[in-house]
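The data layer described in this paper is built around a simple, fixed record for each protein. We quote a single record here, exactly as it is kept in our systems:
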Amino acid sequence: MQFLLLILGLVMIIKSADILIDSSSKIARRYGVSSFIIGITVIAFGTSAPELAVGIVSGINHKNQLTLGNIIGSSMSNIALIIGLAAVIFPLQVKDTVVKRELPILFVIQIALGAMLFTNGQLSRFEGLILLGAFVLFMLYISRDARKSIKIQIDAEGDIDTDSDGNGLSPQMDNEQKNTGLIKLWCCSLLSLLGLFIGGKLTVDSSTQIAQSFGLSETLVGLTVVALATTMPELITGIVAARKEEPEIVLGNCIGSNIFNILLVLGFSSVISPIPSDSGFWVDVLIMLALTFFVFIMSLFRKKLQRLTGVFLLTGYIVYLAFKVISALERV
């Protein structure tokens, strides 16, 4: 029964996140927000929404070791699974700005997280506030480039009006349809948020029960099952972007999602309730850092992530998951 509830919860947060991304993007466009801001805020938040839902609910329930495992596991799956798989589908060209800015920022944030966790064996409320403050600074830093972005025209359905004809409607009819559509979009957004938190509660409760019944830690469940499930939005986006030969979307989505997850999700969750860290958790943090550093080095010297690099990342991730599961089973 708990497995069914876990599946139901995961399906709810994934589907709700998908609806939230779509409706929120259209709302942002309706208010004349630039395409750059939509991508870096709405879409990045949307793909991190499953982790945020799990993080807030588990924090309220004082069971957010699951969240810590989820974020570390999601960071590894974003780098090794999603970027690795995308590189196998289509080699990813890496821009200099990614090498000089985004990847170093992510690496420094991950190092800071590791230092916080192992200084006093937990992520305290004060450290959570530091993470949230860093999130605000990151968004301010990103918004500097927003001034260069171009406003986009929207049709009555809330989509980009590529031909600027307003779907052939008169201005009055066009405005009426836009207002009606905006109400529907707000309803979809609010319902999707509700679905996220209901799904998050189901996921937290069922994962905890499953972990206890098998004698497994919440951290392990978060590192594996929940991490894989909550990165589905990024995985789907990465595969589609790779098939369309859009490397910037793959790298930007994964790097941005990792930054959002650490700063926003762990920040919120630890402010609600401090997150204790398992004594052996340092191995997982080191692997996360190693994967990010490997992608940085390959990007720095080759300016491209080749298929062989993708195979290496995928293989490493599979070996890591197998190691975690086998080690857990041996302790049962």
About this structure: The chain is about 80% helix and 0% strand. Residues 150-170 have pLDDT under 50 and may be disordered.
